[in-house]
Specification:
Blueprint: E1 2-7, H1 12-22, E2 27-34, E3 40-47, H2 51-62, E4 67-72, E5 77-88, H3 92-105, E6 108-112, E7 116-123, H4 125-135, E8 140-145, E9 149-152, E10 163-164
Antiparallel strand pairs: 1-3, 1-4, 2-3, 4-10, 5-7, 5-8, 5-9, 6-7
Protein backbone atom coordinates (compact mmCIF):
# COMPACT_ATOMS: atom_id res chain seq x y z
CA UNK A 1 0.00 0.00 0.00
CA UNK A 2 1.45 3.34 -1.06
CA UNK A 3 0.11 6.67 0.19
CA UNK A 4 0.87 9.75 -1.92
CA UNK A 5 0.19 13.37 -0.98
CA UNK A 6 -0.12 15.33 -4.20
CA UNK A 7 -1.28 18.79 -5.25
CA UNK A 8 -4.97 18.80 -6.14
CA UNK A 9 -4.56 19.80 -9.79
CA UNK A 10 -5.98 18.66 -13.08
CA UNK A 11 -4.04 15.71 -14.51
CA UNK A 12 -1.99 14.75 -11.44
CA UNK A 13 -3.68 11.37 -11.05
CA UNK A 14 -3.11 10.71 -14.76
CA UNK A 15 0.61 11.41 -14.26
CA UNK A 16 0.83 8.91 -11.40
CA UNK A 17 -1.10 6.24 -13.31
CA UNK A 18 0.96 6.95 -16.43
CA UNK A 19 4.17 6.45 -14.49
CA UNK A 20 2.98 2.99 -13.41
CA UNK A 21 1.84 1.90 -16.86
CA UNK A 22 4.91 3.35 -18.56
CA UNK A 23 7.20 1.26 -16.38
CA UNK A 24 5.12 -1.91 -16.48
CA UNK A 25 3.88 -1.77 -12.87
CA UNK A 26 0.30 -2.76 -12.13
CA UNK A 27 -2.05 -0.85 -9.83
CA UNK A 28 -4.30 -3.35 -8.05
CA UNK A 29 -6.55 -0.72 -6.44
CA UNK A 30 -6.77 3.04 -6.27
CA UNK A 31 -8.54 5.52 -3.97
CA UNK A 32 -8.25 9.31 -4.21
CA UNK A 33 -9.78 12.09 -2.16
CA UNK A 34 -9.04 15.48 -0.65
CA UNK A 35 -6.71 15.57 2.34
CA UNK A 36 -6.75 17.78 5.43
CA UNK A 37 -4.14 20.01 3.82
CA UNK A 38 -5.78 22.66 1.60
CA UNK A 39 -5.08 22.16 -2.10
CA UNK A 40 -3.78 18.62 -1.59
CA UNK A 41 -5.20 15.18 -2.37
CA UNK A 42 -4.30 11.80 -0.91
CA UNK A 43 -3.83 8.92 -3.36
CA UNK A 44 -3.80 5.44 -1.78
CA UNK A 45 -2.91 2.64 -4.14
CA UNK A 46 -1.97 -0.98 -3.88
CA UNK A 47 0.56 -2.69 -6.10
CA UNK A 48 2.73 -5.80 -6.01
CA UNK A 49 6.44 -6.30 -6.14
CA UNK A 50 9.50 -7.25 -4.15
CA UNK A 51 11.38 -4.72 -2.02
CA UNK A 52 13.48 -3.51 -4.97
CA UNK A 53 10.39 -2.90 -7.13
CA UNK A 54 8.61 -1.03 -4.35
CA UNK A 55 11.68 1.11 -3.72
CA UNK A 56 11.90 1.92 -7.44
CA UNK A 57 8.19 2.85 -7.51
CA UNK A 58 8.64 5.15 -4.49
CA UNK A 59 11.61 6.88 -6.14
CA UNK A 60 9.83 7.33 -9.47
CA UNK A 61 6.60 8.66 -7.90
CA UNK A 62 8.59 11.05 -5.75
CA UNK A 63 10.23 12.55 -8.87
CA UNK A 64 6.84 13.83 -10.04
CA UNK A 65 6.85 17.61 -9.59
CA UNK A 66 3.59 18.03 -7.66
CA UNK A 67 4.04 15.04 -5.34
CA UNK A 68 4.82 16.23 -1.80
CA UNK A 69 5.07 13.00 0.22
CA UNK A 70 5.20 9.31 -0.59
CA UNK A 71 4.83 6.66 2.10
CA UNK A 72 5.02 2.88 1.78
CA UNK A 73 2.55 1.69 4.42
CA UNK A 74 3.93 -1.53 5.76
CA UNK A 75 3.86 -2.85 9.28
CA UNK A 76 1.89 -0.61 11.63
CA UNK A 77 -0.96 0.86 9.62
CA UNK A 78 -4.73 0.87 9.63
CA UNK A 79 -6.44 -0.35 6.47
CA UNK A 80 -10.13 -0.44 5.61
CA UNK A 81 -12.09 -1.51 2.57
CA UNK A 82 -15.84 -1.35 2.00
CA UNK A 83 -17.90 -4.12 0.40
CA UNK A 84 -21.60 -3.95 -0.48
CA UNK A 85 -23.18 -7.22 -1.57
CA UNK A 86 -26.63 -8.41 -2.55
CA UNK A 87 -27.35 -11.93 -1.26
CA UNK A 88 -30.15 -14.37 -2.11
CA UNK A 89 -32.25 -15.42 0.89
CA UNK A 90 -35.16 -17.37 -0.53
CA UNK A 91 -35.53 -19.68 2.49
CA UNK A 92 -35.75 -19.22 6.24
CA UNK A 93 -32.57 -21.26 6.58
CA UNK A 94 -30.69 -18.89 4.22
CA UNK A 95 -31.91 -15.85 6.22
CA UNK A 96 -30.72 -17.51 9.46
CA UNK A 97 -27.33 -18.25 7.93
CA UNK A 98 -27.02 -14.66 6.71
CA UNK A 99 -27.92 -13.39 10.18
CA UNK A 100 -25.19 -15.62 11.66
CA UNK A 101 -22.63 -14.29 9.15
CA UNK A 102 -23.63 -10.69 9.91
CA UNK A 103 -23.17 -11.24 13.66
CA UNK A 104 -19.87 -13.03 13.10
CA UNK A 105 -18.38 -10.37 10.83
CA UNK A 106 -19.96 -7.16 12.14
CA UNK A 107 -21.59 -6.47 8.77
CA UNK A 108 -24.77 -4.37 8.45
CA UNK A 109 -28.01 -4.84 6.57
CA UNK A 110 -28.65 -1.94 4.20
CA UNK A 111 -31.87 -3.13 2.51
CA UNK A 112 -33.96 -6.28 2.21
CA UNK A 113 -36.84 -7.89 0.38
CA UNK A 114 -38.54 -11.28 0.60
CA UNK A 115 -35.79 -12.92 -1.47
CA UNK A 116 -32.62 -10.85 -1.02
CA UNK A 117 -30.62 -8.70 1.38
CA UNK A 118 -28.11 -5.96 0.67
CA UNK A 119 -25.32 -5.95 3.24
CA UNK A 120 -22.17 -3.94 3.87
CA UNK A 121 -18.95 -4.94 5.53
CA UNK A 122 -15.76 -3.03 6.27
CA UNK A 123 -12.35 -4.38 7.17
CA UNK A 124 -8.99 -5.21 5.73
CA UNK A 125 -8.82 -6.70 2.26
CA UNK A 126 -8.37 -10.13 3.87
CA UNK A 127 -11.46 -9.55 6.05
CA UNK A 128 -13.52 -8.69 2.97
CA UNK A 129 -12.23 -11.78 1.15
CA UNK A 130 -13.33 -13.94 4.11
CA UNK A 131 -16.72 -12.19 4.28
CA UNK A 132 -17.37 -12.93 0.61
CA UNK A 133 -16.34 -16.58 1.05
CA UNK A 134 -18.88 -16.90 3.87
CA UNK A 135 -21.58 -15.38 1.64
CA UNK A 136 -20.74 -17.48 -1.44
CA UNK A 137 -22.84 -20.56 -0.45
CA UNK A 138 -25.91 -18.31 -0.04
CA UNK A 139 -25.57 -16.96 -3.57
CA UNK A 140 -24.08 -13.49 -4.01
CA UNK A 141 -26.18 -11.79 -6.71
CA UNK A 142 -24.00 -8.73 -7.04
CA UNK A 143 -21.05 -7.19 -5.22
CA UNK A 144 -18.91 -4.05 -5.29
CA UNK A 145 -15.72 -3.32 -3.35
CA UNK A 146 -13.92 -0.09 -2.72
CA UNK A 147 -10.18 0.26 -2.91
CA UNK A 148 -8.49 0.03 0.48
CA UNK A 149 -7.79 3.27 2.27
CA UNK A 150 -4.92 3.26 4.74
CA UNK A 151 -3.20 5.43 7.29
CA UNK A 152 -0.15 4.98 9.48
CA UNK A 153 -1.18 3.85 12.94
CA UNK A 154 -0.97 6.63 15.55
CA UNK A 155 2.56 6.61 16.94
CA UNK A 156 3.97 4.65 14.00
CA UNK A 157 4.96 7.77 12.01
CA UNK A 158 8.34 7.94 13.74
CA UNK A 159 9.08 4.35 12.71
CA UNK A 160 8.08 4.75 9.04
CA UNK A 161 8.87 8.31 7.92
CA UNK A 162 7.38 9.74 4.78
CA UNK A 163 9.75 10.09 1.87
CA UNK A 164 10.19 13.77 1.12
CA UNK A 165 10.83 14.91 -2.42
CA UNK A 166 14.39 16.06 -1.61
CA UNK A 167 15.31 12.77 0.13
CA UNK A 168 15.26 10.71 -3.06
CA UNK A 169 16.74 13.20 -5.50
Amino acid sequence: IISILVEDRFGELARIVGLFSGRGYNIDSLAVNRSLEPGMSRVVLTTRGDAAVVEQILKQVNKLVRVHKVRHLEGEHIERELCVASVRTQSARAREELERIIKLTGARILAFSATAFSVEATGTSADIDQFLELLRPLGVRDMVRSAPVALSRAGAEAEAPAVEASALS
